[in-house]
Amino acid sequence: MKDGNFLKEKNARSLWHPMAHPADSLANPPTIVTDAAGVTITDVDGHTVVDGVGGLWNVNLGFSCQPVKDAISGQLDRLPYYSIFRGTTNDAVIELAEELRDFFAPDGLTRAFYTSGGSDSVETALRLARQYHKIRGEGGRTKYLSLKKGYHGTHFGGASVNGNANFRTAYEPLLPGCFHIPAPYTYRNPFDETDPEKLAQLCLAALEDEIAFQGAGTIAALIMEPVLGAGGVIPPHASFMPGVREICSRHGILLIADEVITAFGRTGSWTGSRHWGVQPDFACTAKAITNGYFPFGAVMIAEHVAETFEKDETGRAAIGHGYTYSGHPVGAAAALACLAETKRLKVNENAAARGRELHDGLLALQGKYEVIGDVRGGHGLMCAMELVSDRNTKAPIDKKAIGAVQEETYRAGAMVRVSGPNIILSPPLVLTSEDVQTILSALDAGFAALA
């Protein structure tokens, strides 16, 4: 590795960072992370902190999961790559498909289509949803519905169903035929409704209204996150996703669960859909499927959808879609090892317990600092604080102020993520109670400095 002075001098000079203005990265160089172990990361200056971000929602098992590392190394020695396009495959992807079939059986999902990551998985599900209707002779079903504040990756399809203008405006016009309904976002919503259950019913009514307006026979699918993640960790009322499922089923609309963040234990349940007792038609996965150690993803497909494709005699079910790295054997080997460790450690149970501790601690901080307008979470290890300059008006906090909280929190011992007015926490699922307290103490220091 180059020495620290070289890295600092060249930082952001020769590369553009995702989700950042190039000039901002030059003026405010990113933190240079050089080492990681357990649930901690260390920067180029030797400063070690608890990673409250979990890489990017994906390092569920922490940075020292040796079985996954060994699986990657072993697979590289044996078969570093081979395509699974028509006519060839590899042993690792077959074994993984069977494991995924068992893992997702309670969700009614029995087939896997491999991808290279979350955005790829969303794009795949959107495409297969349209193709499903064409096979069935309903080619007019081409539109998509999604939630405002939802996030579904960065491909043109995913950006089109995204519900946040930050990921859309610079790239418009996007895919036509994408429409958004209000999210069950209790802190800010167009109905001025603060009761989560009542708000859920209002959003479901808005969904019914949009379907009636568009015409059910024109809609291919609705895509949603079981808990909205990048939009600010917005958990719906328990009645919401089951209500969406019922409405979609009644109108012949496929339900795509974007489980890129929520699958594999993040919510305290093995999947976000299962957390709400819902069986989707597709589930998009990636991130924690390999613990972030290898780019990999899988779209899981419901039995009834799979049968429609497999029993087709018209030729319309031929899949003209895929990626060079779909079913990469190294990724599949990593996923097999990761899935085994995920189940062995029962990380869903730890996520639920530590998530309650973290959420309670954030509520205590809210009672201490007026700048914390809202605290969201309570469903596993995904929490957020929305910062405001005035609690009465809910006016968002100044960008520099929230940046100052983040910087001081980092100095005090924890990496946290800023997204708009939100501080988002998505730490590894192997977090301990002591680690939770480290994050809370660091945040306390961050807010105290701002005050």
UniProtKB/TrEMBL annotation:
Keywords: Aminotransferase, Pyridoxal phosphate, Transferase. The lineage of its organism: Bacteria, Pseudomonadati, Pseudomonadota, Alphaproteobacteria, Rhodobacterales. GO terms for molecular function: pyridoxal phosphate binding; transaminase activity. The keyword Transferase applies. Gene3D superfamilies: Aspartate Aminotransferase, domain 1 (3.90.1150.10), Type I PLP-dependent aspartate aminotransferase-like (Major domain) (3.40.640.10). SUPFAM superfamilies: PLP-dependent transferases. The keyword Metal-binding does not apply. This is Aminotransferase class III-fold pyridoxal phosphate-dependent enzyme. Its cofactor is pyridoxal 5'-phosphate. InterPro entries: Aminotrans_3, Aminotrans_3_PPA_site, PyrdxlP-dep_Trfase, PyrdxlP-dep_Trfase_major, PyrdxlP-dep_Trfase_small. Belongs to the class-III pyridoxal-phosphate-dependent aminotransferase family. Pfam families: Aminotran_3.
